[in-house]
Amino acid sequence: MTWLKLVPAWAWWLLAVLVVGAGQQYRLMVAQGETDSARVETAKVKSDLADYRLEVSERDRRAAAQARNEEQRRQKVADEEGENARHKLDLAEGRAATAESAADGMRGEIKRLRTGHRATCDTIATQQRETGASAVVVLGGLLEESDRMAGSCAAALERSRIAGLSCERTYDAVRGVTNPPKIHNAK
After folding, report:
1. Sign for the pseudo-dihedral over CA of 136, 138, 144, 149
2. Is residue 140 in some structural domain?
3. In the chain, at which end, N or C, are there fewer CB atoms within 10 A of the end residue's CB?
4. How much is the pTM?
5. Residue 104 covered by a domain
């Protein structure tokens, strides 16, 4: 232990300062290495985050485009079906107008028969004429009224049928049903 006393005290202090300085330098290098690793990791995470954001925005764009295309397809189907229904309604209204015209002709014939009946009944006894005339008038009136109501009901039912079938076809087409059940199309 005598050799320790040979080394001056300031050398021991210098050695201690050098050892502490070296330890601090080592800690500093380790901390810088960890900082550099953290910077690299942060840069990688930022890059991954940017890639993820880009991927998500692209996915959102594709989903929005797909939704827009589906909406346009559905609107096109609904528009086509609406046009088809309007065409069928126009045809039904034409048929109803033709039927009304025929009914007007029949009413004219009933009126002519009434007039003829009145003319021929002048020779028959008054009591028989009144009974016969009133029966013909009542039956003719009932026939006219029932014909008018039947035409009105038929037109309303045809419009309702066309609208219902159109609605079903539109619903099936929008839902994407490829083979909807066939409904007999009465013309």
Report:
1. negative
2. yes
3. N
4. 0.50
5. yes
Domain assignment of residue 143, given as a range: 77-175
Cβ contact 69:135 at 8 Å: no
Instruction: Give CA–CA dist 99/88, Å, rounded.
Output: 16
Spans of the chain below 70 pLDDT: 1, 114, 116-136, 177-187
Q: What is the full DSSP assignment across 150-162?
A: HHHHHHHHHHHHH
In a domain, 55, yes or no: no
Q: Are 85 and 163 in contact (CB under 8 A)?
A: yes
User: Which pair of tokens denotes residue 6?
Assistant: 């040979």
Q: How many domains does the chain have?
A: 1
Rounded (10°) CA dihedral 117, 123, 128, 132: 0
Own/partner long-range contacts of 161-169 (Cβ < 8 Å, ≥24 apart): 161/186, 162/85, 162/88, 162/89, 162/92, 163/85, 163/89, 165/85, 166/81, 166/82, 166/84, 166/85, 166/88, 169/81, 169/84
